[in-house]
């Protein structure tokens, strides 16, 4: 994977802006940068929708749901996701209740994911953020199994906001081994350089959540990451 061109690497990237102080002008700049870099999508907060995506760019739109704590009622997550799709989102990145995983309430986690899946059926892409850095290996596996059972499309490592940390190669590898190709694996949180990105892809990531996309793609003048 180290021989990926910048254009090829860009197609793995959800160019992300989720900081609370983000403005609509910031999101417009994000879109312009994403188009210039050729990233797969932009990922934004749902209240930033709808977005003005340049015609013919092919840029996808992702929005988060239940972000960043996951401690929302399932009905609220489902409604938030449905509103985001109605406003133009192609993909939803939802946060599970990580505490429910740690409690061993995996049926509740699956039901939570299923509620959002039912609200935003295919072709909307559903990614499930499990906050892997806050879980042990058995819990990571259980969360991934719940996502598979609820017909999600991806499992995702992190919000990027949890103090336990973001993506790790170990977690990505375990997640990829667990879903066995049935779901994609998105690594997010702490990916700052091309080398970080390549390590995650080699570990099994099929999508990357990145705010420092210009730096990852080799632009030395890129602004610091703000994910």
UniProtKB/TrEMBL annotation:
<dbReference type="GO" id="GO:0005737">
    <property type="term" value="C:cytoplasm"/>
</dbReference>
<protein>
    <recommendedName>
        <fullName>Deoxyribose-phosphate aldolase</fullName>
        <ecNumber>4.1.2.4</ecNumber>
    </recommendedName>
</protein>
<dbReference type="InterPro" id="IPR013785">
    <property type="entry name" value="Aldolase_TIM"/>
</dbReference>
<dbReference type="GO" id="GO:0004139">
    <property type="term" value="F:deoxyribose-phosphate aldolase activity"/>
</dbReference>
<keyword id="KW-0963">Cytoplasm</keyword>
<dbReference type="InterPro" id="IPR002915">
    <property type="entry name" value="DeoC/FbaB/LacD_aldolase"/>
</dbReference>
<keyword id="KW-0704">Schiff base</keyword>
<dbReference type="InterPro" id="IPR011343">
    <property type="entry name" value="DeoC"/>
</dbReference>
<comment type="similarity">
    <text>Belongs to the DeoC/FbaB aldolase family. DeoC type 1 subfamily.</text>
</comment>
<comment type="function">
    <text>Catalyzes a reversible aldol reaction between acetaldehyde and D-glyceraldehyde 3-phosphate to generate 2-deoxy-D-ribose 5-phosphate.</text>
</comment>
<dbReference type="InterPro" id="IPR028581">
    <property type="entry name" value="DeoC_typeI"/>
</dbReference>
<dbReference type="Pfam" id="PF01791">
    <property type="entry name" value="DeoC"/>
</dbReference>
<feature type="active site" description="Schiff-base intermediate with acetaldehyde">
    <location>
        <position position="156"/>
    </location>
</feature>
<comment type="pathway">
    <text>Carbohydrate degradation; 2-deoxy-D-ribose 1-phosphate degradation; D-glyceraldehyde 3-phosphate and acetaldehyde from 2-deoxy-alpha-D-ribose 1-phosphate: step 2/2.</text>
</comment>
<dbReference type="GO" id="GO:0016052">
    <property type="term" value="P:carbohydrate catabolic process"/>
</dbReference>
<feature type="active site" description="Proton donor/acceptor">
    <location>
        <position position="93"/>
    </location>
</feature>
<dbReference type="GO" id="GO:0006018">
    <property type="term" value="P:2-deoxyribose 1-phosphate catabolic process"/>
</dbReference>
<dbReference type="GO" id="GO:0009264">
    <property type="term" value="P:deoxyribonucleotide catabolic process"/>
</dbReference>
<feature type="active site" description="Proton donor/acceptor">
    <location>
        <position position="186"/>
    </location>
</feature>
<keyword id="KW-0456">Lyase</keyword>
């Amino acid at each position: 994977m180290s021989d990926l061109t910048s254009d090829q690497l860009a197609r793995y990237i959800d160019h992300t802006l989720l900081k609370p102080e983000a403005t609509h002008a910031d999101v417009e700049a994000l879109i312009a940068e994403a188009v210039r870099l050729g990233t797969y999508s932009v990922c934004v907060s749902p209240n930033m929708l709808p977005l003005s995506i340049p015609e013919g760019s092919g840029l996808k739109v992702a929005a988060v749901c239940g972000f960043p704590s996951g401690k929302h009622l399932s009905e609220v997550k489902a409604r938030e996701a449905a509103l985001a799709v109605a406003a133009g989102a192609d993909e939803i990145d939802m946060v599970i209740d990580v505490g429910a995983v740690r409690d061993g309430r995996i049926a509740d986690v699956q039901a939570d994911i299923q509620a959002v899946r039912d609200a935003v059926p295919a072709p909307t892409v559903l990614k499930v953020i499990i906050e892997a850095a806050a879980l042990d290996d058995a819990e990571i596996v259980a969360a991934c199994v719940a996502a598979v059972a609820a017909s999600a499309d991806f499992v995702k490592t992190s919000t990027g906001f949890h103090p336990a940390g973001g993506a790790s190669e170990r977690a990505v590898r375990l997640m990829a081994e667990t879903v066995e190709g049935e779901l994609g694996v998105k690594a997010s949180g702490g990916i700052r350089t091309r080398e970080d990105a390549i390590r995650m892809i080699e570990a099994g990531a099929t999508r990357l959540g990145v705010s420092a996309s210009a730096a990852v793609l080799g632009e030395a003048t890129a602004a610091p990451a703000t994910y």
